[in-house]
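Comment thread on ticket #2218

A.B. wrote:
> Attaching the input chain for the structure job we discussed in standup.
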Amino acid sequence: MTRVGDSAVGYSIESSRSLATTVVVRAWGFWKSAVAERFAEDVLSAVTKSAPFTVLFDLTELKPQGYDGEKAFDAAIAAVSALSSFRCAAIVTTNALSKLQLNRLVRAQKQTRWVFVDSLADAERALAAASRS
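C.D. wrote:
> Ran it. Output below, let me know if you need it in another format.
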């Protein structure tokens, strides 16, 4: 498991306990450069350990991001999407502004395998379906 930051600001990355080929990324708070700078690299490192793979982004505690955080998510979206073993990513967020921000990043890259869902249960269902296809 990778964990960066503290209880107020940061992220963690680990393998899913319920979905064998899924990497779970949890992020929280408002990121400064110290937290954001390694995010894409850490996500990429985690997903290249399993093929094919899906990613569950639990962003229920993430605040809308400034430049550093947005740049980190943009880089992670591009890096993950470029891998041939990537199947699908599900993003769960409860903050409307964070959802709009991330949706804009995904659409700007013309990514079609990224879905926004309302709950972790919905995310697991979407990823399980993507893993079977």
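A.B. wrote:
> Thanks. Noting for the ticket: The longest strand covers residues 53-62.
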